[in-house]
Amino acid sequence: MASLAVTHRGNMISRIEIQDAARRISRHVRRTPVMALEDGAFGINARIFLKLEGLQHTGSFKPRGAFNCLLSSQVSDAGVIAASGGNHGAAVAYAARQLGHRAEIFVPTISSPNKVERLKQYEATVNVIGRDYAEALAASRERATQTGALEIHAYDDPRVLAGQGTLALEFEEQVRGLESVLIGVGGGGLIGGVSAWYQDRLRVVGVEPEGAPSLFKALEAGRVVEVETGGIAADSLGARRVGELMFPIAQRFVHRMSLVSDEQIVNAQRLLWQKLRVIVEPGGATALAALLAGVYQPHPGERVGVVICGANAELSTFPA
What DSSP line would sit under 202-233, residue for residue? Predict the structure, then answer.
């Protein structure tokens, strides 16, 4: 059995920290279901298990990290502040409201109207600024300096990484014997936490849109690099660079990276709805897109886990 602690180079997240996070946030997050698909589902010779994290509070995995950060921190009267393409901001706003704190969220202009409206429903102060996440982040940090609010980074914070890792702890309890897990990647918070939990006990496969290959390029270069981002999933997976904290975890434990096109992502969204009646946003369908398109090819009978992690679709443009 693998050791509970990660002791490779760098400041890695340990499995003990993830276990502690799971206990800390247990009263505040949902234990989301797993859908075990029938043999040969989607014409693929594998056993596929979908972790339906879109049924989490706010429609994504993000409350796990947000609650762990808030419950591990001292929060002043200034409250909390975050930058987000939408899902992280919604999670921070929701967690802050549940715990009695103020929240101010900065989102870029590419964020969908649906996500901006969701932030307002959670009673956050919303600032729409910058063309992408990086510009919104810079504005949020300037504001945090002025107000003294607690900044909650979307993925480059050890408390957030440990919180996201609770998804893997839960998935392993629900499905034994998985051989691979496919994860959509933006800034890397989820795949960092998942990899820190599973370590080398199965194959962790990261999937990115072709238009936002932040982790793909970083692993290729051997260091965190900045890339241009765009495409259909840019509001949730469009980080220009992955987190410094998750990168050494990815270097050691991510088995491989796969890139998928916008068309393949849209097809995954469509099939999830047509075959399973599950609605997801583009980022939430990205991991499954690699499997459906044959970009990731499992061996016959492989037990494959796929995290479906974003349900905040813009229904007016949904590819039904």
Answer: SEEEEEEETT--HHHHHHHHTS-------STT
